[in-house]
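Duplicate of #3305? Posting structure anyway:
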């Protein structure tokens, strides 16, 4: 019989309300992630399509830099794809895979999200309560029984 190692409990952190991100748009958040007892800057992008949300680290696999255009823009003209503002790589927003551009076949790093009572929550990581960026304050999700 195989023993399964205990996993870290899934503590959800509220990042924003679902309606703070229009459908077919994305928004970035600069958070503090706790690793080995230290708070590290962690920049993520959340894309919304209807009631679905998809999260990725804000780091293009082409050159390892943030992929925004400036002005918090992360999508192509019709909002159907994530797009890097540096050299135009296009990504499937549901999988994070680059489908056109200089890093075809590579993928954005996913961030685990859930929607709880119209709040977008991150799970699977430990975040600092005091955020790096004052505008992007996270809190434990009270509705998840934690
Ligand atoms: S850095 Fe994103 S396409 Fe080059």
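Output from current build:
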């Amino acid at each position: 019989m195989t023993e399964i190692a205990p996993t870290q409990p899934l503590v959800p952190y509220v990042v924003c309300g679902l309606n703070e991100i229009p459908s077919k748009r994305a928004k970035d958040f600069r958070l503090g992630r706790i690793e080995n007892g230290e708070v590290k800057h962690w920049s993520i992008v959340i894309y919304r399509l209807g009631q679905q949300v998809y999260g990725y680290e804000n780091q293009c696999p082409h050159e390892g830099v943030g992929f925004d255009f400036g002005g918090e823009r992360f999508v192509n003209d019709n909002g159907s794809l994530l797009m890097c503002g540096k050299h135009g790589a296009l990504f499937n927003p549901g999988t994070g895979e680059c489908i056109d551009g200089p890093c075809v076949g590579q993928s954005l790093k996913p961030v685990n999200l859930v929607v709880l009572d119209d709040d977008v929550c991150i799970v699977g990581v430990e975040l600092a309560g005091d955020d790096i960026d004052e505008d992007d304050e996270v809190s434990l999700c009270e509705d998840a029984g934690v």
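Confirmed duplicate; merging threads. The chain has a mean pLDDT of 86. The CA atoms of residues 97 and 107 lie 4 Å apart.
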